[in-house]
Amino acid sequence: MDEFDENGWAHVHHAASNGYYKSVSRFIKSREDQLELETQDGQQLTPFLLACTNGHLETVQLLAEEFHANLKAKDRQLFGAVELAALKDHINVLEYLLKLDSPDLEVWKNLIRGLSVSDLETSCAKALVELTTEENCDHLESFLNAGGVLAVLNLLKNSLSSDESKIFALSVLLNLVRHDAGKEQLSKNRAVPAILLQLKETARALYLPATRLLEALAYSEENKEATVSNGGIDSLVQLLQYSDDEEVVESALSTLRVLSNSNSEIQTTVGSNKEIWKSLVSLLTGVKNKHVLAAVAKTVGAIVKGHTANQNAFVAENGVPPLMELMRLRSRDCQFASVQGIQALAEGNEGNQSIVTEHGCVMMLMRLLKRSRAADLRTMTAEALWAIAGEKNAQRRSISAEIGINLLIEFLSENLPQSLHFIGSEALGVLANGVRNKRNEIAKANGVMPLVRLLGKSNIPGYIILSVLRTLRALCLCLGFRPHVQNQDAVTKEGGLKFLIKYMVHARQDIIKVEAAYTLGCICLSNSANMKATLDHKDFSFVHILRQLYDEDDDVHLLAGAALAVFAYNNVANQRNIAMSGGVRYHAFIPFLESKNEKQAAYAAFQVVVLSRIIPDEDQSLTSATGIKLLVSILDSTTEDNQAAAANFIGGLAHTRAGIPGAIISIGTIPLLGNLLMSQYETVQAAAAVALGYLSFDSIGERQLLSVCRRDPFLYEVIQFHAGKVKLSKQFVERWQHCKRIGLPPIM
Length: 748
Description:
Elements: H1 11-18, H2 21-30, H3 47-53, H4 57-66, H5 81-87, H6 91-100, H7 107-114, H8 121-131, H9 140-145, H10 148-157, H11 163-176, H12 180-188, H13 191-197, H14 207-217, H15 221-229, H16 232-239, H17 246-260, H18 264-271, H19 276-286, H20 290-304, H21 308-316, H22 320-325, H23 332-346, H24 350-358, H25 361-371, H26 375-389, H27 393-403, H28 405-411, H29 418-432, H30 439-444, H31 448-455, H32 462-476, E1 477-478, E2 482-483, H33 485-493, H34 496-506, H35 510-524, H36 528-536, H37 542-548, H38 554-568, H39 572-580, H40 590-593, H41 598-611, H42 620-634, H43 640-653, H44 660-666, H45 669-676, H46 682-695, H47 699-711, H48 714-723, H49 730-742
Antiparallel strand pairs: 1-2
Helix pairs in contact: 1-2, 1-3, 2-4, 3-4, 3-5, 8-11, 10-11, 10-13, 11-14, 14-17, 16-17, 17-20, 20-23, 23-26, 25-26, 26-27, 27-29, 28-29, 29-32, 31-32, 32-35, 34-35, 35-36, 35-38, 37-38, 38-41, 41-42, 41-43, 42-43, 43-46, 45-46, 46-48, 47-49
């Protein structure tokens, strides 16, 4: 007979409950029926169930492995080993039972089933949190295959489930979302709506895990759409009001940022929320936590990037000053996020570029750029400055000058990010162009060397190659087609000719081929040594350029013509070589000569005049006359760039072969150029002045120019300023001084 105490327990029950595994072993060995003996207290607990209930792992192992206890045993409530261990939070026992992997004990299914039982849901959910951690990820697949995700989501949807259970359920999902398989299951089972429900509950403890889940899932376009369509944006924005719970605010911000990244439709949805801009600015001005401030700035950047309406809305809320203030904080994250936000606000938005400049942003960014030693922060700062520079020449020049030549050259260092390479090249190109160009200063600072070395790098992106090619061209070609010999020779010294020829011949993109050819021609312009070295190179042939002259791409076609023109410019031998290599035909230029695009027309007009001697299908004099008339007509253009281009090409033609200056002068060009001296744009003034300077070497041109200056003596000062004594005929200067001496009155 078994002896039970007043509570209905035998000795084996007490031993199993207390973990006295040696005693348990002795009792069972003495009497085998003790193994499955149930308590008489109404609970019907076996020794195995008692050991599981109280977390005695050694006893559980003994009973399961040595004595082969009934693993399917249930108590009076029909709770088995899994449920009882979960109720008492004995994770060690559950982990063991999982590893035991017995077909008699379906651990996952029992735990999952427990999520739908009111007495078990909290305990089972809590247990699942521990069993799905990174340390237990070996069992993840089994949990997923058992339908775990759907069960957890059903718990979240159940209005009768406790807040505590839901918190554990969300924690389970947070464990799962760290793995691709878990993310896939969450998306497959449409987790987002269930998670969003938690943001509408009164229990704030649910908000943090819910928003973190939404953030993790938001990288999927499918989940982004689900978040938006289920009202997630409004819910997240509402959370920004709970500034007393900074973790929730930060998480909500991060979720909005991920949702908005590279998705204009979601950016529009976020921007249309009535509270979003006020909330963001309020956080910037009212929060002290640097982590939250950085999150706000990052979120602003994501919401406004590339979205004009959102850019303007944030600025209209007076968000720029507090965003800029983050740059003053001693926090690299805040500084970086602030700069990133400014960059996003300014990029592609001319109005905002002006506004941030007016707020003193350029000065603050420059201070940060020069003081910071953090590479990523310096890179982002440079990118922000370049975003503020925009597309206007004046602003780009101003920003480039602020950064300074030495620092821009430093940007070209091989070990720095490619974005800095691009900015450095573009900014140096800006400084090399224009009226107050810095070609000499760049040459003195040895700026050509790193540009050429970039061309020699492998795997350099095409957009950087194009930028470098154009910058080198700007450094080597002055107004009126005058070479900058020092920079030309610097390119050659650094081995640039071979790189240019390589790109001209072997580049994958046709646009790079012709840009390289055009730049190569500029480096050889009026430079006999460079020209000889180029022509002697085994891979160089005009055939490569001539092939591109008939390309379907207008830009390629036009630049091929530009390259041929610069090689042929004042070089009869090259003209002959071009003709022998296949030559050019007038019909190749007709589409551009007849184009409504004045810039294209100006380029083509210059090309046909330079190449007219080797165009066999049209009379030379007629070709030249057509090109000259077209260029002169474009002087009346309404745009700065076209006027400057036409005047520059006229200046270049004014010192080519005999007869060309006279032809230019004969159709009333000098008075038109004189009018351009009064342009509001210095680029136009300078190009016109240089052209007039070269035309002053013609006797008729000299007299006409003298008349122009006598009508308005100030124009002489403009010419003198831009053209200088080098490009003004001595006779013209002497005649003008004579007129001043004798006091001839102005011609009215």
